[in-house]
Amino acid sequence: MKFLITSIAISTFTLLSACQSNNNDAGNAQHPAEHQVDQQQAAATSQPTVPMAKEPAKQLPDFKFYKVKSGIGFTNEDIPANRNSIFILFDPSCGHCQQETGLLAKNYEKLKNVNLYFISMNDPSLMASFLETFGKELVDKPNVEVLYDRNQEFIQKFHVPAQFPANYIYGADGTLKNNWDGEKDIDFVLAEFIK
């Protein structure tokens, strides 16, 4: 009988603690991008042996991401040559990411000669319909790919951004041409992507 009462007390305490944690989380709402960066930083602190990229990589680093649609690996060797390659680190629930994607989609004709890679560490199921929802004109374009960063290589090798979307433009020679965090005017973005 004593064992049964102790078990019930422990179960009740655990249940109440879980409810309080959920309530506290609801009171600490933040922008999805801030939450994502916080998760990245938490992951970074749990793996102290892996350095985080505090400065943007000046040369395109070696990486392995995964195509969201097929799950097939995607590396530096898969990037078509002789054009700018734009890497956009995003969170599918980020309003600024959704807005930038929509504006890029509406201006696809200007982006036909650049490689455009949308990268996220979020669950691929959250990313699967991102372009279909926010950038329909980019779906199935040969120079556009949505990539899953399963091993958090972006923040280890490219850069840890302060905000989403984070944009990185690498030239045909693999040298960083420009980068920025957060929302920018679409005319600026387009000009930098094709420069």
From TrEMBL:
Biased composition (Polar residues): 38-49
Region (Disordered): 26-54
Signal peptide coordinates: 1-18
One Pfam family, short name: AhpC-TSA
Keywords annotated in UniProt: Signal
Thioredoxin domain segment(s): 54-195
Family matches, as InterPro entries: AhpC/TSA, Thioredoxin-like_sf, Thioredoxin_domain
Highest taxon listed in the record's lineage: Bacteria
The keyword Secreted appears for this protein: no
Protein name, as recorded: Redoxin domain-containing protein
Organism: Sphingobacterium chuzhouense
